Amino acid sequence: MRWLLGVSFGELMLKGKNRNTFINQTRRQILKALEDFQLGDNFVDSGKFFVEVNKDDFPEIIKKARMVFGLSYVYKTLQVEKDLDSIENGIKYLIEESNIKEEKTFKAFANRSDKKYPLNSMELAAKVGGFVLKNFENFKVDIKNPQVEVHVDIRKNAYLYLDKIPTIGGLPLGTGGKALLLLSGGIDSPVAGFEMASRGVEIACVHFHSYPFTSERAQYKAKRLAQKLSLYLGQIDYYQINLLNIYTAINKNCRPRYTTIIARRFMMRIADILADRYRIDGFVTGEALGQVASQTIQSISVVNDASKLPIFRPLINMDKKDIIEKGKMIDTYDISIEPFDDCCSFFAPDSPATKPRLSDILKEEEKLDIDSLVEDALATLEHVKIDIDNLD
Ligand code: ATP
Ligand code: MG
Predict the structure, then answer these.
(1) 2-166 belongs to which CATH class?
(2) Fewer beta carbons under 10 A from the terminal one: N or C of the chain?
């Protein structure tokens, strides 16, 4: 008898030729997410993944494992021998251990992918149901709406668990192309990156800073946000660019009300070049309509004009409070609210244009040598690979 974390994969995993690649990739993600815990054996049995864990770690382990993309359920699982006695003893132990004292309705479920097993699923479920009824006075059957599910799963081994624990779902990473996340130090962009990644999109990050006008702490903060994302994304390509000269030139030459939007257009031009170099298919930003004065349809369309590739804005219709909630869930929020500012807030004008017209912006930009400003900014490019162990 031993305790395992059981994992079943999302539907997509069960289809097609890439199934094993997905399973292996996701398996690595799970083990990475659990690397702080003492783990035993890990293996796949008929399409389900199992890893041996210490029982006391379950609450924390389940919290972590639920956050890996591409899973459907996780299970606190007891592995036992396949004979009926061992199964019944295991069920007894599982229910006693779960410490359910009050009255509960339950239903027994059996599944066997080992078709040679002497009992079929119906027979096995009936046996287990009868056993529970006999041994636990506080358990009553309800096959329509049970409060507790008692599962027996016969594969190469026999696995027992109560209840399926839902996960964040999503699609396995890497199934949806690669996007470059424009990562500020704020609350929104890390959440946007997470949302996009949940649809299987691999994420690289670019952060624009204004060192020495902004501090090294601000850069470090953005890197730590990327590191939090790497928990879900695996190793992340992280690019950092100094935008100070561009801000200075905009400040000197252009009307202040357009500073933010012109700077954003520079970010997109630079991002476009990075996309070309590093095989990126699109961009992600944390904009939400109406959240700040500059996040209007008109601004968005003027920003889009500066980029060849599509810009995805997965938070576009979200309330700030829901974004904050998500940020807390993925553990980026506490870092986001640290007080080290990125470049944008320093150079933000008192009253930005809320409905900029592209023709006005283009006229302002004629005062700048766009190509050489972009080229100089690109010369400051730093590229690091960030993962859970490594920030630089
Ligand atoms: P966030 O909370 O993500 O900073 P925000 O509400 O502050 O967003 P803006 O400052 O208008 O919104 O920025 C909109 C988006 O532009 C950000 O979500 C981010 O994707 C991108 N962005 C802004 N500043 C930077 C930066 N310094 N480096 C990289 N991307 C940035
Ligand atoms: Mg911001």
Answers:
(1) alpha beta
(2) C
